């Protein structure tokens, strides 16, 4: 019985530390409640896995998250945007966080995300030499991911995709993807050219080093998946 209790204590963090980004924060202020400006996924706070997403449109905004029925919030270039976890949870899986944007051709409320996507924020290792250590990840035990909107971003309506990838089971082909999409109208006088552009699906492959990562074999480095982050020009 003691052995069972000990095993359960070890496994609990792997199964219970789930979370979802569904609250919008703008310049430190909470805007609306849960899913106020977020496309609601159908798998609640549970992750989606590598084999479910790599070739699926669900890689855009998560399972069941569709256009329609969600309002759009107006922000400005230079604003600091927070994507906060529900229920005052914390990120308790090791791995990177990202923000990608896709400019809608018209109203973002009707946009399916089939256009180009650009990485505008990445959150990786604060201690790059020990990626196998959970506390080395900058997002560890944080309650949100944050993006300061680049000053040179063109004005428009954007689908804003926030993502955290839990790597604790990635070596078994089961990286955990926590994804949500927010709808933002960005006011800006910027004339930049966000890039490089990618399509989703097509963003990742299951074999990418940053997706099939093994944190348990004492790794000394980590390779960020996806394209390079936009430099703001």
Automatic annotation (TrEMBL):
Main location: secreted
Compartments where located: Secreted
Cofactor requirement: Cu(2+)
Domain Auxiliary Activity family 9 catalytic: start-end pairs: 18-222
Annotated EC: 1.14.99.56
Signal peptide: 1-17
Top EC class of this enzyme: oxidoreductase
Catalytic activity entry: [(1->4)-beta-D-glucosyl]n+m + reduced acceptor + O2 = 4-dehydro-beta-D-glucosyl-[(1->4)-beta-D-glucosyl]n-1 + [(1->4)-beta-D-glucosyl]m + acceptor + H2O
Single GO cellular component term: extracellular region
Example of a GO biological process term: cellulose catabolic process
Keyword terms: Carbohydrate metabolism, Cellulose degradation, Disulfide bond, Polysaccharide degradation, Secreted, Signal
Record-linked InterPro entries: AA9, AA9_LPMO
One Pfam assignment: AA9
PANTHER family: ENDO-BETA-1,4-GLUCANASE D, PUTATIVE (AFU_ORTHOLOGUE AFUA_1G12560)-RELATED
Protein family: Belongs to the polysaccharide monooxygenase AA9 family.
Record-given protein name: lytic cellulose monooxygenase (C4-dehydrogenating)
Top-level taxonomy: Eukaryota, Fungi, Dikarya, Ascomycota, Pezizomycotina
């Amino acid at each position: 019985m003691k052995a069972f209790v000990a095993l359960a204590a070890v496994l609990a963090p792997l199964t219970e530390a789930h979370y979802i980004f569904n609250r919008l924060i703008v310049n430190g202020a909470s805007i609306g409640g849960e899913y106020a400006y977020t496309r609601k996924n159908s798998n609640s706070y549970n992750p989606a896995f590598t084999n479910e997403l790599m070739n699926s449109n669900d890689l855009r905004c998560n399972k069941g998250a569709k256009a329609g029925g969600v309002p759009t919030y107006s922000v400005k270039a230079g604003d600091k945007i927070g994507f906060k976890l529900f229920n005052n949870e914390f990120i308790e899986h090791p791995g990177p966080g990202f923000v990608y944007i896709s400019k809608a051709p018209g109203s973002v409320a009707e946009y399916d995300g089939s256009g180009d996507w650009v990485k505008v924020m990445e959150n990786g290792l604060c201690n790059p030499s020990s990626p196998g250590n959970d506390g080395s990840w900058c997002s560890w035990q944080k309650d949100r991911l944050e993006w300061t909107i680049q000053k040179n971003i063109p004005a428009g309506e954007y689908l804003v995709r926030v993502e955290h990838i839990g790597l604790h089971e990635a070596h078994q082909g089961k990286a955990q993807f926590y994804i949500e999409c927010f709808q933002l109208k960005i006011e800006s006088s910027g004339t930049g050219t966000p890039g490089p552009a990618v399509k989703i699906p097509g963003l990742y492959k299951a074999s990418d080093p940053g997706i099939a990562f093994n944190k348990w074999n004492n790794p000394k480095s980590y390779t960020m998946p996806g394209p390079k982050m936009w430099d703001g020009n």
